[in-house]
Amino acid sequence: MQEPLLGAEGPGYDTFSERPPPAPGDRAWVRIQHNKRVFLATFAAVLGNFSFGYALVYTSPVIPALEHTSDPDLRLTKDQASWFGSVFTLGAAAGGFSAMLFNDLLGRKLSIMFSAVPSAAGYALMAGAHRFWMLLLGRTLTGFAGGLTAACIPVYVSEISTPRVRGALGATPQLMAVFGSLSLYALGLRLPWRWLAVAGEGPVFIMILLLSFMPNSPRFLLSRGRNEEALKALTWLRGAHTDVHWEFEQIRDNIQRQSSRISWAETRDPHVYRPIAIALLMRFLQQLTGITPILVYLQSIFASTAVLLPPKDDAAIVGAVRLFSVLIAALTMDLAGRKVLLFISGYAMGWGPITWLLMSEILPLRARGMASGLCVLVSWLTAFALTKSFLPVVHAFGLQMPFFFFATICLVNLLFTGCCVPETKGRSLEQIESFFRTGRRSFLR
């Protein structure tokens, strides 16, 4: 029988003081009241993921339109189409790399807010484009913003959440990204491609406005010695009538034990490299399932098949199914557990939202900013290789060849989940990190 995530209770493991549980009829209401400000801060942050999902699939309706445009300066060749589709992932890789610096220098919240600058500039370039290079630069800038938010938002959400809702809230970045993609598909049924870029500006400015009123991560503030500000942030998040001192002390004790920045020599310790390796491999294998090239070229893929509905309608249906699946994952993740969903569900319910959540949960605090950026860098470099090569492979060997490869990777993912992925349901970040520090092999079984 698998051992529990943590062993006997002790001061190193207790993060929240024990309280008598509320009556069953009041439990949901109590949870909502206790976490309503966390929900608000999460919503403000994950608007960045909405923009990310919107920008990622922008090319799905735009490539077919530009392949048949009457403007010779914007008409795309097959090679240009592959660059237009894939250059977003290069920008995202650069954004992930920059997050290794920004996450720990500016903090999680300010890094998310900073992403609005390249995002707004990128949409403006594509909306007013009259040369191909403007389209490429716009895609690169929106990709940079997406890579930065992909590394910062999961960490911010996990650090402000309580263990009881962290699973559900950890799925919201993927949920909002899918909702952003669905919005693009839906608007693509009505709007011309330039107005699709204009519409992308709206969520960026709303995100900036809302985040201006949200607190930074208490864990980040404590790691910078800003104790009073951290206590105020935690009190605001948990509510004025909640006693946060026990949680505050536990977070501060954990940070004081790890007050210095991690060195390269320390990365050889199992409690450091093991969670980083798991997170990196999950991000790598997630991209190898082919989700990015499929979404980027979704309308073109449907156009090359014998489907009955118009490709635009098919793309919108796929977006709606993905949104419904991620919503189910968000509602069941804290009940069924992360590992169960990885085994029994498809991408949108499993490897889509859960890999982002686990990345933010298992990475050690001292390396969380650097390691999350590294995970995003690896993820999007892999996505670029797949997205750039997808159209040439399809033209040379047919659509079945890449999909056979993606199916094989899905089988590999099952084996990886079974032998390496931990179950973190219901544990605080301090408990997860304490457990990795014990070095128990049963944790990975």
UniProtKB/TrEMBL annotation:
Keyword Cytoplasm: no
TM annotation in the entry: 38-63, 83-103, 132-156, 168-187, 193-214, 288-309, 315-333, 340-359, 365-386, 393-416
Name of the protein in question: Solute carrier family 2, facilitated glucose transporter member 6 isoform X2
Chain spans, region Disordered: 1-24
Main localization, broad class: membrane
Domain Major facilitator superfamily (MFS) profile: 41-425
This protein's GO CC annotations: plasma membrane
InterPro entries documented for this protein: MFS_dom, MFS_sugar_transport-like, MFS_trans_sf, MFS_Trehalose_Transporter, Sugar/inositol_transpt, Sugar_transporter_CS
Membrane disposition: Multi-pass membrane protein
Keyword set, alphabetical order: Cell membrane, Membrane, Sugar transport, Transmembrane, Transmembrane helix, Transport
Recorded GO MF terms: transmembrane transporter activity
Pfam family, one: Sugar_tr
Source organism of this protein record: Chrysochloris asiatica (Cape golden mole)
Domain of life: Eukaryota
Keyword presence, Transmembrane helix: yes
Compartments reported by the entry: Cell membrane
